[in-house]
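In keeping with the milestone schedule agreed at the kick-off meeting, the structural modelling team has produced records for the first pair of proteins. Each record is given below as a sequence line and a structure-token line. The laboratory manager (R.T.) confirmed that both were archived under the project's standard naming scheme.
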Amino acid sequence: MATVKIKFRPSTIDGKQGSIFYQVIHNRVVRQQKTSYHLYADEWDNRSSTVIIPRLDESRREYLTEIRNRIEMDIKHFQKVFSDFEHSGYPYSADDLIAEFMTAKHDIYLYAFT
């Protein structure tokens, strides 16, 4: 069975936002999928791989809560894709998993806005 990990890549420039990406592992093959989610290093907990929500900054709290919710949705979606491939009985790769995730995610967003 495949696994997905949530990773944070800090910016190489001090004071700039880093980005979230997903690491998909299947049969010891590791692939990465970038996201459009950006946050500062102090807004990310590496140990638990979660977004840290500030108490005081209302606008930042709303943005980070939205990012946290999207990550949760993405992980659930990855798990469904993994399960579907596993139950299909056909061989598949980490690249297949990411391709299906991205195709289905694109379809979900298109459907939500029609």
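The second protein of the pair:
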Amino acid sequence: MRPTTLLAVLTAVVLLEAGLNSEAQDRRGAALERRFQELDTSGDGKLSRAELGDAQQHASWDRDQDGFVTQAEVREFMSSIRRAQSLLAAAPPATVAEGIDVDARPSAPPAAVPVANSRAFAHLAFARDWVPGTKDGAGERMTGTETVRLLAHGGRLFAATGCWMDLPYGRRDAGQPPWTGPQILVKDSAQAAWRVDVSWPMARRVTAILSTRFVTDGEGQALDPPVNLLVAGPISSRLKNTSVWSRDDASGTWAESVVLEDVEGGVRSFCTHRDRVTGVQSLFGGLASGAVCRAVYDPSVPGRLRWDRTPELSGTGRVMCLAEANGVLYAAGGIRNETPLSGGLFRRVDGASPRWELVWRWPHRIVDRGDEPEILRGLTAVPDPLRCGQEVLLGTCSYPGVIYRIDPARGFAATTELDIRKYFAKAFGVPALRGPCLSAYNDFLPAADPDTGESVHLLGVWILHPAGQGTPEGASAWYLVRHGDGTYSHGRVFDPAHPVPNPPRGLLAARTLAISPFPEDKGRVLDAGGFDCARIESRDTAWIYRGEIAAQTAKAGSQGRCFGSSGGVELGSVGTGGAKSSG
């Protein structure tokens, strides 16, 4: 039997044993020992990464991080699964919303690519602003395989990084620099260099970060003054608990608040919401383990966040995004299987005993490895282009590579607003594009053109240029600009001084975008960051670029019916980017 097949069998045994009674677990324990011995080709009673054959699984099971997996460590992993299952099962059951067809198919993509005539945020001159593998002014090493999020807070710009797939580094091989883990970096002014704010050596990635303002305490009493808080969620299978860390802006230190004990993974998304019945404002965390948990502001507890120990929602795949629209909180959990409540778009019904209802399940494909075809990303509320004063939800799915507009006022009818591959195929001048199509890794970023005042939303994408690796076009990253009427334009992240960075893979993906918070930039600077390891071992591939808007590059328009729409143009006028320094 091949090592990969043996690993699959061993993994299945692990997961099965986690859900069995004691007698059945004894039987499965014997099977576990047999499979373990078959993989242990050296006969030393432990599995190296080469013997296990799966680096990610090895990192999850190697509890003491000594580079080897023992049977005791595998059993501890199984015990943690059982503990997590017990905690997550305590969540109140969700229901299917009455009178709504939760499996309604979205509309077909528009026959013609909906291209805007506005040039807002489409022509920027980018330059590299940060290089991983270097040291900051205090001598602290800055690392990362991915820049996961850029975010303004308290007049500064923060960056969350990840070290996913930096596996040789994580093994602490001889001669390697000290392992930093994922980090929060901070930039204090437009001209300042990036520096380390905090590192988490036991984590693998910072998957969620949010700057929020609390206006009430846990009893619904107003806070005077309101409290601004920066919160982050480092994630790793090596962390025993699911925790959130919050920053004390006065001291610059971070404090941990435990969300769920003995539940590994971490928080994948954040959103604040004020209950329309109780008046209490809460921070909600969407968990990688498929749950939604709630915290209130409490200055007397560590991290100033007091978490309910029972999730409000559980049983879904990764909760990739949370958003509030028209005063209602929504959560998008990955669709684990064809059971209706195993995932989809859920809405919260506020009250003293809140509950969650399933309102829509996007088209999906259940796969054995990975969950990308099962999840929705970037959930964001935007003004309804057809009805003034109302909001609709935007979300993206890499399968089949589209942007959906979901309308709560029409029974959550979903409109396929854009076929992303079709858009870029036309823009690049090719009949069709193949390959990855991830977009809106975090959300759709609201922005206003500094010259015209036009309101737009920006989202990064991972799309492969047909020029291929090793070329300036293929090494660039790309992003989309959504205009108020649902038309689109695009931009290119490219520094002519570094035409092929991260050879041979390039920038690869724009995971995150942020408008510079610094007064001297006057809203004319767009910061971008990203890379996507795509399960390929990587080292110091994260990036941050700074893009400046030239004066009077955009023409107002494309704002939608409530804003004065001016229609779109043929895609040919958008251009293909080519070797220009901005797209």
